Amino acid sequence: MEVQNEHLRSSQTQYEQSEGYYADLFNNAPVGHLTLTENELISEANKAATELFGIERHDLLSRRFASLVVAEDADRWYLLFAQLIKYNQAVDIELMLKHGQGRYFPVQLNCLSINAKVRISITDLSNIRQAETVLRDVEETVAISTEQLHPLKNQIDLLHTLQKITSLVPGMVYKFRLRPDGSAHFPFASEGIRELFQLSPDDVRDDASQLFALIHPDDFDGVVASIQKAVQDLAPWSHEFRMKFYDGTIRWVSGSSLPEQEKDGSKLWYWYGFMFDITDRKHREHELRESEFLWKFAVEGSGDGVWDWNVQTNQAIYSRIWKEMLGYSEDDLLPTYHEWLWRIHPDDKLSVKEALQAYLDRKTEVYAVEFRLRCKDDSYKWILARGIVADYTEEGSPLRMIGTHTDISKRKFQEQQDKEHLNQLAHITRLGLMGEMATGIAHEVNQPLTATVNYATALNLLASLDEPDLEKITKIASLVSEQALRAGKIIHRMKSFCQNQNTSSTSTDINTLINDCILLCNSDLKKHNITLNLELAEALPMLFVDVIKIEQVLINLIRNSTEALAGNDNPIKTVTLSSLMLDENQLQIQVRDNGSAVEQAIQEKLFIPFFTTKIEGMGMGLSICRSLIAAHKGTLTFDSLSGLGTCFYITLPIK
Hints:
Layout: H1 2-28, E1 32-36, E2 42-45, H2 47-53, H3 57-60, H4 74-86, E3 90-98, E4 104-114, E5 117-124, H5 126-142, H6 149-166, E6 172-178, E7 184-189, H7 192-197, H8 201-205, H9 209-212, H10 217-233, E8 237-244, E9 250-257, E10 259-261, E11 267-277, H11 279-301, E12 305-310, E13 316-318, H12 320-325, H13 338-341, H14 346-360, E14 367-374, E15 380-392, E16 398-407, H15 409-464, H16 470-498, E17 506-508, H17 510-527, E18 530-536, E19 543-545, H18 547-566, E20 573-583, E21 586-593, H19 600-603, H20 621-630, E22 635-641, E23 645-653
Helix pairs in contact: 1-11, 5-6, 15-16, 15-17, 15-20, 16-17, 17-18, 18-20
């Protein structure tokens, strides 16, 4: 388990690094990005988006996107959003949106819907519209007569100014034109073309073939097809593709623009179209996919199922092995958190929820819980679930949690068999203890019975008097009742102790349990002139234990001390029972005697099954005692020093 946990942590570190690269790319992208839920609420927004709207990020999140759309475009947006939610597709649209300060501005939205989420890239067309007007003025100026060269010069100067401005924009701003004969050129290309494509604006002003020649052969047909579709539909063009340069270097590029029909039948992409380098983003996406694949491969290679849960939206992804573990095929389950929750056994659901919530609230360092999960055939399997929070929101709340499911049904079955075997051994040893202590217990029971007979005789004598002393009769009757109850309590403890039944844990006062044990051991202690000392702490917390099992351990330890002191020459023989708080989570019971120390060679073998120092002993008592305490998640240890005697320590968890 430790190896698996270490591997999980290592894989998670790689996963987090890849996630970090992607988060940096998203947050620092020059284009505004939003993510909408199926209810049209904004769940993610990068820095560029907040600047675009002039609205703080925390005010954007959980806001309906429709509230940012002007009334004239609201119906178009609602129809588009409904279509996006219904079908996974990519759709582009131009709208007028509202700025935080009240003004309106035009945008192009590149929308992509996946699994009930809509991801939106926003391009501000404000500057583009202004530049478009200027550019058209320039084109009109080119057509004027020679007498009007002075205004034309002004337009050329303006173009130079625009070239300087666009040189500050990352990537390449351009105007692309597809002629009726099928040829193409870039009437305008910003200086960014030099870095992006290793070409100059002049290289493509009349002929775009040099740029098209650089498109990666595997992507060329896709680029051409995307342009033709945009021409046919007069729809926004957006495409990602690779460029392969003459030195063998390969770079990823993303481009987008808007087509418009011209009078001569050509299509025009205005210069506000742009392309930019996305190579780093593509590499990070690849690394992210690779690290996620390696992590899932490593985990599923061990037979574990993998789950990925969005804590905020309750969407969940379950791996193939996760589903197969329960008898489901790949498409049987919905990608929701409730698919898992509904299958938890009713008796386990509360404890699982508490363990999960404690981890999410950072009250525990790890999430690891065992429970039963319903299979497709309505049977149940025991599952060990482990997980960690992989990402947090900006406010520090858990955003995403990933983990594994391990089938532990065989282990649980074996544990149940071991428990039943231990119960049988424990019952046999209890019967053995009672057999060894029978004489002393009989004497202990005989005392109150003899006293009861004597008191009853005295009652008869008093009752036969002519004037009976009612006060004495009442007092003696009370003594008869007291002795009868004492004998009954001893017999009841013997009966409970010897029964062979599956007992369960109950909330128990440990000091009461110790006093009940003394009832059965007192006669042996008196027989060997052993003084019993009690050092019981007050106001101890209740323990959740199997009373009979803990009594068995205590009686076995007290009897061992009694036998050790029986043959000892010490004139003052004592057995001390103590109870105390070890720390805030543990309580301890001590059984100490002042007999001879256990030899060092014997100490090393004391808990080994079938090892004994007694002539008629089986050597199972202490071994079973340790197993009974271990079943309570506790420990049984001892120390033995010459001159001080031997002390056994029973340490039990409070919770």
